[in-house]
Amino acid sequence: MNRHASSWWIRGVFVTGLIFVALLEAAAFLIAHEHHGGFWNAIPMWDLVFGFGGAAVLYLAAKRALGPLLSRPEAPMRRSRGGRA
Amino acid sequence: MTPSWEFLIYHPGAYLIAGGLWAGLFPSYAWATSGVFSFGAAAVFVLRRLPNLDFTASVADFHLIWYRGDALSVLFTVVFTVVAGLGLIYGWYRMRRGEAAAAMIYAGCAIATVLAGDWVTFFVFWEGMAIASTALIWLGGTEQSRRAGMRYLLFHAVGGALLFVGILLHLAGGGPIEVAALTGTGPPFWLILTAVAVNAAIPPLHAWLTDAYPEASTAGSVFLSAFTTKTAVYALLRIFPGAEVLVPLGIVMTLYGVVFAILENDVRRLLGYHIVSQVGYMVTGVGLGTPLALAGAAAHAYSHILYKALLFMGAGALIEATGFRRLSDLGGVWRRMRFMTAMYLVGAVSISGWPLFNGFVSKSLIVSAAAEAHAPWTELLLTLAAVGTFLSVGLKLPWFAFFGADRGVAVRKLPSNIPIAMGIAGFLCFAYGVLPFMLYRMLPWEIDYRPFTFDHLSSSLQLLVGTGFLFFLVVRKLTPAEKRTLDVDWLWRGPLRGAVSDAGRALRGLAPAAQEARRWVVTGIDAGLRRAAAGRAAPVAPAALNFRDSIGWTIFFAAAAAAILLVILDRA
């Protein structure tokens, strides 16, 4: 098993995403209008930052705050079946 | 109104219930035939639906409306019938006869609940749905499914009791027998709301869902994902539109589901948390109460049923093909199941709200309604939940299950009915995504909403791309561990364990008397049907008895509860 075999996926996704976002931001800057809702919707690139920051907040809340508190080792009976359904 | 019993001819649910009974009582392979005929008949009558027409009947001086075909009922009936058909195709080779029968009765009861125009009929089919779905979980056939089914039954028994008392107080207080929006905030309001909250899986009353749905069979999970929670959404739309308490509850649901989904390792349990989260959007929409928000809640329920069925089909296909159910055991299987991976991804982008898929055109109705209702924090938190949805269902699950490091998991070839069902569901998710007017014109509320504006497309794509960046930054830290996440179920796995065991023992103590009553009902029905079949039916195999038991319980409990309700009302 090679746990790092997928690193080319990650690089590919990053490069494609960056190109896509650059084009999207350029288009949004040229033709988008301010839309309804909270004041934050008027901030340039807000949605991109919110997507990144929101995911970070949820990741930290789940993995760092709740995970250590709520996660328990899997039941030994299930582990002994090798995880089979 | 049309005072008549003709509704039985026009009622799509009646065909599915009859098909389920037929499948359960007659020998092997009969279920396939009855499945085809009952679904076919139900579909025909959905296509030839009778909007704005009521069928009524008088029982013990009560004017019962057994069929109310208004726009809201018809919307849910259409999608319930579609998903029942998809589930039957998906389970064609794998479902045992009892399971298929329970699934058809479950679907039929869900349709009958949304078509019910009066409280008594509503309650009877609501409970029928609870019993049939319990049977569906039990028929998963494992020790875990038996235990989870019992916990599920206990939850829904409490919910049913609250609904029963709530309806009783409502009617005894002079309330109309028609199921309609409740006014005032007295005990009936809170009792019925709590009962519906159990079925809608509003935390902390949600643990039955993530506990039981992963333990049913793979086909059983597809049915379970569609009916109970969405019938509750229908009930909220019908009974509690604009109830402000639902807004914070809905927001909590959306975030609760996604946070727990990030922690989860079991594929179907992760998807279960996303039912909680997505239903949260609908609950928030009902609470906001504006026409756009209510339309959004109904539209999102419609979309959710389709893409969630597709996601559970994808998870089931993964489990059937590999034999594994945990992300920590999976990885890199996409090359060996390309079509299934593609269809799962259609479901994943739909639930994540990617443009051109049905989640985009329905979820945004609710978020826009929050903005228009000057509730910016509601809008912001619902958007945050959308980020979490993409993070866990759109990225984490497919990455660790289908892509990522190849663990060399062997993949069995699946029967062709599975990709066919997934293909149809995927096509519908895409079709409603590119042609949203097909969905919008079915809604009971007129809306003027255009999902494909540049602003909306741009903001949605930026949100999703930003989430993608974060995911690929922390992907190694999100690697699932062989752990179980404690939820509210910690209460009865820990401090209340003794109390739950005592309740189980007490129930078992009542079993002999109830068993005798049930035997009387089932034997009578069985004998009648056998006489009707004039001895042509082959002997029933012992395996069928399990199912016949559950049908017997369904009929027994529903009939007993309805009789008690009618007697008490008669004396009130």
Summarize this structure briefly.
The complex is a heterodimer of chains A (85) and B (572). With 85 residues, chain A is mostly helical.
Structure description:
The complex is a heterodimer of chains A (85) and B (572). With 85 residues, chain A is mainly alpha-helical. Chain A has three helices and one strand; from the N terminus they run H-H-E-H. The model of chain A is unreliable at 79-83 (pLDDT under 50). Chain B is mainly alpha-helical and 572 residues long. Chain B has helices spanning 7-10, 12-25, 30-47, 71-90, 97-115, 119-138, 143-172, 187-200, 207-212, 218-226, 228-239, 246-263, 267-288, 291-322, 338-352, 358-372, 376-401, 417-434, 437-440, 454-474, 490-493, 497-532, 544-571; strands spanning 2-3, 54-59, 62-68, 483-485. In chain B, strands 1-2-3 form a three-stranded mixed sheet. In chain B, a hairpin with a 2-residue loop joins strand 2 and strand 3 (62-68). The radius of gyration of chain B is 23 Å and the shape is globular. Chain B starts with a strand and ends with a helix.
Keywords for this structure?
heterodimer, A: mainly alpha, 65% helix, B: 572 residues, mainly alpha, three-stranded mixed β-sheet, 3% strand, globular
Task: Describe the secondary-structure layout.
The complex is a heterodimer of chains A (85) and B (572).
Chain A: H1 7-31, H2 46-70, E1 71-73, H3 76-80
Chain B: E1 2-3, H1 7-10, H2 12-25, H3 30-47, E2 54-59, E3 62-68, H4 71-90, H5 97-115, H6 119-138, H7 143-172, H8 187-200, H9 207-212, H10 218-226, H11 228-239, H12 246-263, H13 267-288, H14 291-322, H15 338-352, H16 358-372, H17 376-401, H18 417-434, H19 437-440, H20 454-474, E4 483-485, H21 490-493, H22 497-532, H23 544-571
Parallel strand pairs in B: 1-2
Antiparallel strand pairs in B: 2-3
Helix pairs in contact in B: 2-3, 2-5, 3-4, 3-5, 4-5, 4-10, 4-14, 4-18, 5-6, 5-23, 6-7, 6-23, 7-8, 7-23, 8-11, 10-14, 11-13, 11-14, 12-13, 12-17, 13-14, 13-16, 13-17, 14-15, 14-16, 14-18, 15-17, 15-18, 16-17, 16-18, 17-20, 22-23
